[in-house]
Amino acid sequence: MATRTSRLGVDTNPYIAFSDLTLNLVFVLVFFVVAMLAVSQSGWEQVRYKQAQDRVAAAVRGANLPVTPTLLLPGQRNDPPGAQRWVFPSRRMFAGDTATLTSDGQEILTNFARVLKSNLLWERIRIEGHTQTSREGVPERWDLSAARASAVAEVFYNGGRIPPYRLAVAARGGQTPFAGKGFDPLNERVEIVVEYASKAAN
Known about the structure:
The chain has four helices and seven strands. By secondary structure, the protein is α+β, with helices and mostly antiparallel strands.
C-alpha cells in the first residue's frame, strides 16, 4: 500500500486521511441539516402566524372602529405561540360598574368580530374579563369579569356570527393588572386573545 512521508517524517496513508476527512464532513453536514430543519420548521410556523396576524391587524385598523383596541406586543403576556392579544377598556364598552354593554361597546365589538370572521386565519378566540387589582380584604370580582367576558362572547356569536366552538370565556378578576398594582381605570378591561396556532394551549 502506498504511503506518503510528511514534512515531519510521519508516514500517512492518503486513503485513510481522506476517509477521516469525509466522515467528519458527513457528521458536520448531518448536524447542520438537522439544525436547519428544526430552526426552519419553527421559524416558518412563526412567519405563517405573523403574516396572518399582520393581515388581521391591518383589517382592524381599516375598520374605523369608534375605539381602536390596543394590540399588545408579543411576549407581554404568557400566551401560546401564534396568539394576538387585543385590549378593550371597559369605560367605553360597559355602562358604569356593570356587564351591560353600551351602544358604542356593541358597535365596536360587532365590527371587530366581523373583521375576525372575514379574516378567518385563526383557530380560536379567548375572551378574558379583567377587573381591578386583587387586594387583601377586598372580595375578588370574578362575577363581574365573567359576566363582561360572556357579554362580549354573546356579541361575537350573535352579531359577528362567530361559531361558539371557536369561542372561550375566562374570568381573570384582578389577577393581571394592566396599569400597575394600584387602582387604575385601565385595569377594568376585556382582553381578546386571537389564537392562530392549531394546537394552542388551553
